[in-house]
Design goal:
By secondary structure, this protein is α/β, with parallel strands linked by helices. The protein has 2 domains: 171 residues, 2-Layer Sandwich (VC0802-like); 210 residues, HUPs (Rossmann fold). It has 14 helices and 17 strands. The strands form 3 sheets. Strands 2, 3, 4, 6, 7, 8, 9, 10 and 11 form a 9-stranded mixed beta sheet that branches. Strand 9 and strand 10 form a beta hairpin. It is elongated. Bound molecules: adenosine-5'-triphosphate (ATP) and magnesium ion (MG). The site of magnesium ion has 4 residues, from loops.
Length: 395
């Protein structure tokens, strides 16, 4: 616990996306996402945009670890720099303040450094290069353990003369990506497994706002299995922001497929109905894409032939960010975003309950479509019922 007060953080973001008119959309979304993230941190914070910079400030006490914990989960941030903000009281005062800054910031003053001063305000009496030399000298005099290294310094000390004076040297990496809300909306098919939360996280990282749909099959799947999905949705919402989770009762549809279609095609046909329902809800909720955790060859329902059959029912693009990932790569991300422990809890999954011992690994689309006709007399009604009677949970 490191209690802080009266502190400013400079928020850095990837300028590469900030061309022309899109710049303010990106910045405004980032300010909004930061503001939302800070609602979870104790203390009062101001987030403001000033001359192509975003700052977070506070006059109250707060826990810096908690603040950084929240900011490092806001997509779009590339770095967070604790910054000393000074009024311009002349260059002599600045020298004193920079000496004090080093004492306050570093317990151990044995390191190499480089000054990087920038005079954004050209009427400042000392130019950038002179400032580098003069401030560097003052620090060398004040701290015998310091040495200058212009090529590979341990610490880069930045001083920026703007409307006020900003001094910073530490940079905590952000998650990168784009602020949520700068791309479209997409519907994630969220099972209780390992893959789908990671997939939703990855797409949200590109600025996409997420909704989620979960298919359960009570009484074959338990309330605890549903709670697990709610927990996973909560975990990813730390990154993605608030979301709606649509919970579909899939039991009747699953039973009908089980009774009327070949057992080895059950999973594929089931997956096709999941995609159809997800797409229907997606379109109703202004989502312009679906997201799944599929990865080529991971299981029988994810061979290329199976993916062809599943994909054939969708009009919307299906985003499959894990398509070429090995399991371990997915596990690594799940651990990083803290979904792993929840995902591996051993609750039943509606996909595995009726599953055949030997599911087809090379389904043929025409054959699957033919067998789906076995459901013609009942499926329409069941789909409508499943969609209309869904539960919607605010996460
Ligand atoms: P996961 O680890 O995400 O459960 P999986 O490896 O178990 O994936 P499948 O069961 O074949 O894979 O499902 C593939 C994808 O289909 C999942 O990643 C998910 O996006 C979606 N999906 C599967 N089952 C469900 C379900 N019950 N509810 C919502 N989506 C599901
Ligand atoms: Mg699964």
């Amino acid at each position: 616990m490191s209690n802080q007060s009266n502190k400013t953080y400079l928020i850095k973001y990837g300028e590469i996306f900030l061309k022309g008119k899109n710049r303010y959309i990106f910045e405004d979304a980032l300010v909004a996402r930061i503001t939302e993230a800070l609602e979870r941190v104790e203390g009062e914070f101001r987030v403001h945009k000033f001359l192509a910079r975003i700052y977070v400030e506070s006059d109250t006490d707060f826990d810096e670890d908690e603040l950084l914990g929240a900011l490092t989960k806001v997509f779009g941030i590339t770095a967070i720099c604790p910054t000393l903000v000074l009024e311009d009281n002349g260059f002599d005062d600045l020298k004193e303040q920079v000496v004090k800054y080093i004492k306050d910031t570093y317990e151990d003053t044995n390191f190499t450094f480089k000054m990087l001063c920038k005079r954004a305000r050209k009427n400042y009496p000392v130019d950038s290069q002179e400032m580098n030399c003069l401030l560097g000298e003052v620090l060398l005099d004040a701290y015998p353990g310091l040495k200058v290294d212009v090529h590979n310094p341990d610490v880069l000390i930045k001083v920026e003369i703007r409307e006020r004076v900003y001094v910073y040297s530490k940079s905590i990496p952000g998650p990168g990506g784009m602020p949520v809300g700068t791309a479209g909306n997409a519907m994630a098919l969220l099972s209780g497994g390992l893959d789908s939360p990671v997939a939703a996280y990855m797409i949200a990282k590109r600025g996409v706002k997420i909704e989620a749909v979960y298919f359960h099959a009570p009484p074959y799947t338990s309330e605890r299995a549903k709670e697990k999905v709610v927990d996973l949705a909560k975990k990813i919402s730390v990154y993605t922001g608030k979301m709606k989770l649509h919970v579909i009762n899939f039991t009747d549809i699953q039973m009908a497929i089980y009774q009327k279609c070949p057992p080895d095609e059950l999973t594929i046909i089931m997956r096709r109905y999941m995609m159809r329902i997800a797409e229907h809800i997606a379109k109703e909720n202004k989502c312009i894409g679906l997201i799944t955790g599929e990865s080529i060859g991971q299981v029988a329902s994810q061979t290329m032939q199976s993916l062809l059959c599943t994909n054939a029912v969708c009009e919307l693009p299906v985003y499959r960010p894990l398509i070429a990932f090995d399991k371990q790569d997915i596990v690594d991300i799940a651990e990083k975003i803290d979904t792993y422990e929840t995902s591996v809890l051993p609750y039943e999954d509606c996909c595995t309950i009726f599953v055949a011992k030997h599911p087809v690994t090379k389904p043929i689309l025409g054959v699957i479509e033919m067998h789906e006709h076995n459901l013609d007399d009942c499926i329409e009604e069941m789909l409508n019922k499943a969609i209309n009677e869904r539960e919607v949970i605010d996460i």
